[in-house]
């Protein structure tokens, strides 16, 4: 069925693509690439079948792109994000630095580009790969129903994602941080310090990361039997410092305010610290606050925070992308890599007085 579909498209629309060849031959896109660029890696029977389909469909590989791939260091495409206002986040910068560092160690370099939204990003990724400018791309900050993985898979663009979608994530390679486990660790830390009314400051519902962090707080509170005593202590708002200050003030105005708070980000956590100090409360004694991301601001202000293993994330992504693009491996067609990593809590004065 796949072979007939591929031939029909070729006959109807001119020159065939590498993805159509792969579908018609019943192999992966990388196997077709290996037949063209490194035939010694492919079994004779498979190689002959792919070569036969190439002839039948009239596929003509991009020789310029091929020359760029084999004669120069690999290029990795990555969409750089604009700086958010009222944010102390540095995860994006850490991640980009890690990609560049581990990429260079693997003879790859990062090519950054801009795009107005994810639709334009997918178009740019496809164009960069088809012209041979990049050999693969890295996706960042996937949403539950993100269309980028499906679009790039259909276009035959090798990619690895930092994050994953709500469905179909087993069909592509990704590395993610267990955000739910992170906020659960924060709750456990506060419970161990004697807190029983523990609030949560998070984002509005609808994002993969924000929803996972809220779920971790909820499940941990339930596990400790503390949900009933923390009624109405879950508040949400934009990821800005002013929002964190406002939401923390709302919690402190409750008839039974929390003695501990888990913030979904350090940005919200830093905002919460302002509200605590404006009330004349002693941080770590009168109320404890935990952030998420372990930014330089958290370290400077003594904010306990969850540190994402960004360096490990970047190394895994680069290693997988090298495999998918057929360099340094003979098994580029293996199953996609799916890795979930747990963050670590870094305790500071905001939860441990005297630190």
UniProtKB/TrEMBL annotation:
PROSITE patterns: HTH_LACI_2. InterPro entries: HTH_LacI, LacI/GalR-like_sensor, Lambda_DNA-bd_dom_sf, Peripla_BP_I. Gene3D superfamilies: 3.40.50.2300, lambda repressor-like DNA-binding domains (1.10.260.40). Keywords: DNA-binding, Transcription, Transcription regulation. Residues 16-70 form the HTH lacI-type domain. One of its GO terms (molecular function) is transcription cis-regulatory region binding. PANTHER family: HTH-TYPE TRANSCRIPTIONAL REGULATOR GALS, LACI-RELATED TRANSCRIPTIONAL REPRESSOR. This is HTH lacI-type domain-containing protein. It comes from Wenjunlia vitaminophila (Streptomyces vitaminophilus).
